[in-house]
Amino acid sequence: xxxxxxxxxxxxxxxxxxxxxxxxxxxxxxxxxxxxxxxxxxxxxxxxxxxxxxxxxxxxxxxxxxxxxxxxxxxxxxxxxxxxxxxxxxxxxxxxxxxxxxxxxxxxxxxxxxxxxxxxxxxxxxxxxxxxxxxxxxxxxxxxxxxxxxxxxxxxxxxxxxxxxxxxxxxxxxxxxxxxxxxxxxxxxxxxxxxx
Length: 196
Description:
Blueprint: H1 17-35, H2 38-45, H3 49-55, H4 59-69, H5 83-99, H6 103-116, H7 118-144, H8 154-171, H9 180-190
Helix pairs in contact: 1-2, 1-4, 1-6, 4-7, 5-6, 5-7, 5-8, 5-9, 6-7, 8-9
């Protein structure tokens, strides 16, 4: 994975970028966005706060970099050999993120903070753009196999699936049935209309 993807520049970056990112996400999970401070990250990571400010001028910028670059949220797109299998694997990743601590605390804190902080919202868009770019090979392979129409909006498919998990788990606070993933993927791909 490139240094740039981990929130550092090609010309270098802080030696302890991962420690900084880990401390950022740990503090976010514990204290929420309001309780996240550069000073707290510096203390927890053992890195001077001036070093952190040199690379990330605000906590929004730091959190944005941590979301993309932290090992805790690292992501490898699935390759199961089928679109259905890949989408189910992608959705299981989202479900795990939303139902397992500390990632669930991080996700909920980020969602809440993004609605209050325009600066953070910009960095959240960068995170999702990065994630969609990583997921794109799933759709490219499906297109090559003839499983998808050429004009398919892959971002919309991901939004529909991930959105279903977010609404069910985070907003409605409902448990997920064991067949939730397969039902959600089936409904998104094939619809809910009766077949004649």
